[in-house]
Amino acid sequence: MADGSLPDESAVRRFAVDLDRLVPGTAPLGLAVSGGADSLALLLLAAAARPGAVRAVTVDHGLRRESAEEARQVRSICLDREIPHSILKADWPEGPPISNIEASARKIRYARLAHWATGEGLTHIATAHHAEDQAETMLMRLARGAGLSGLTAIREQRPLGEKVTLVRPLLHWPRATLRALVEATGLPIIDDPMNKDPSHDRARLREALREAGFGDAAKFAESAAHLAEAEQALGWAARLIYPHRVKEDGDGLLFAHRGLPREILRRILLMAFDSLHRSPPRGPDLARAIDGLFEGRQAALGGLLLSVKGENWRIAPAPPRRAL
Fold first, then answer.
1. What CA–CA distance (Å, rounded) separates 145 from 44?
2. Is 35 annotated as a binding residue?
3. Tens digits of per-residue pLDDT, 56-87?
4. How many structural domains compose the chain?
5. pLDDT at 279
6. 283 in a labelled binding site
7. Annotated binding-site residue? 37
8. Which of 14, 151, 167, 180 is the least buried, fewest Cβ under 10 Å from its Cβ?
9. Mean pLDDT throughout 300-304?
10. Is 36 known as a binding-site position?
11. 278 & 219 share domain
């Protein structure tokens, strides 16, 4: 670090390349900053790569007594660097959660971030997910039997509401690199005790990987990237095949399914659900429906009736239930 407060130029150049792939250079950028090492590194790098074009936000979940003071600490760091900063309070109408805390906090955090970004006129907001986050997410999903889409783990970008895109420009950066970058500036780092709490799945997995010596997050991140490319290729193939195999049939669709790989079948059926304005079914439910169709049985799913018609499968609105 040149002056103890700015990241070195090589780190900024590397970050700028990663960011430019995801966010147009002229677009103002929102930054989700909790005060941990990862998000402080994001703050420093983004402010150096896009001076005057970033705005920071901290979500105070109110789950720990220290959270309000930690949010104010982040604000002070931002204001010292003339970076606009907002603090958002989590709203728990029924009180803070006592179970499934991580998922509940994530859901409310993203909802608040989307609302804030829209109000600020921002089209992109960045989080500090890094290579270890990617590795841990992929392995947790693997342990739960996720399919290809789930195993792509954390996406570099995804919609966050209707007008905002969530981006993760640090997915290929190791945690240690980010922490070293912040420590070199002398900034105070907030260490959330939940990250080491063995009652949380991610913390237990992180410790198990460390003890087993499988801590090369970059390799896991590479695998997730390869899986993401395969996911994109299969989606492209399904979209290409769809108009040649799916035709209108009255109020429904007729799908000439023969000879297609099961994964392509699954994707085309999901596209059919979307075409008929129905929400996509859960993966296991759709898998059971496909099994039934191969056996000549029909299945009601998501308000649609999937049935066999000659050599094809038919997807159409389910008839109304008869009154008793």
1. 38
2. yes
3. 999 998 888 899 999 999 999 999 999 999 99
4. 2
5. 92
6. no
7. yes
8. 180
9. 93
10. yes
11. no
